[in-house]
Amino acid sequence: MSLLEVENLVVEFQTASGPFRAVDGVSLRVNAGEVLAIVGESGSGKSVSMLAAMGLLPWTAKVTADKLQFDGRNLLGMSASERRKIVGKDMAMIFQEPIASLNPCFTVGFQIEEVLKVHEKLGKAARRARAIELFSAVGIPNPEDRLGHFPHQMSGGQCQRVMIAIALACNPKLLIADEPTTALDVTIQKQILDLLMRLQAERGMGLIIITHNMGVVAETADRVIVQYKGRKIEEADVLSLFESPKSAYTRALLSALPDNATGDRLPTIADLLSDEQIFEGAVR
């Protein structure tokens, strides 16, 4: 059975000019132990789709779906209190920009222990011991000392490791990593990806990686979903996607990679395709 099943997800926001559909009929699934990559340009609805699944969009967003189910349970039919028991515990998310995601007013130790206090009901000594264990697991040196540091006292890579530790604190069944290597230098990006893949394999989690980086997709994913303007354009296993992409949009994305450039200037999607060409043959 799939961990997360989404069918015909639609997300709309009210704007001054009327409703704006950020996600338009997206369907997906991810199983335990599987890595699914969701790839596309900025604004393609990747993050909004997963925030909707997590129930983390503002109340002004209108979310509908034929099915929105986690581990056999209907997420749309849950009360807010029921959903809070799952989010952060069984479903966890690593957000973009780790320094912005951490509260600057509290130590990183307090922030990870707060998760354990809410979801695991651990006492103070047990929370500290577990926090030290988690910091060690994600490769933070001198974890006992680091617990007392504030986010601004740590590097971007260390803050990302803190975010991963917080997300893993309650041994989630499904982890969603939203652009986990954004704003990190290349060496740290590699370390973070290797860490995520090692932890995913050790724990048998389902893992969804949201990215615009096709190199990340090639390194990590079992299956790939390509999105554009809120719609799913293509879905395939990772080898098939790179060797024989079926949609014109996916082919255009791959042709825009620096390694495939034939001139001084990289081609853009707008240069290559119209929206009509992109949406032709799009899957649900």
From TrEMBL:
GO terms for biological process: transmembrane transport. It is found in: Cell inner membrane. Keywords: ATP-binding, Cell membrane, Membrane, Nucleotide-binding, Transport. It comes from the Bacteria. It is a peripheral membrane protein. GO terms for cellular component: plasma membrane. Its main location: membrane. The keyword Transport applies. GO terms for molecular function: ATP binding; ATP hydrolysis activity. InterPro entries: AAA+_ATPase, ABC_Ni/Peptide_Import, ABC_transporter-like_ATP-bd, ABC_transporter-like_CS, P-loop_NTPase. Belongs to the ABC transporter superfamily. This is Nickel import ATP-binding protein NikD.
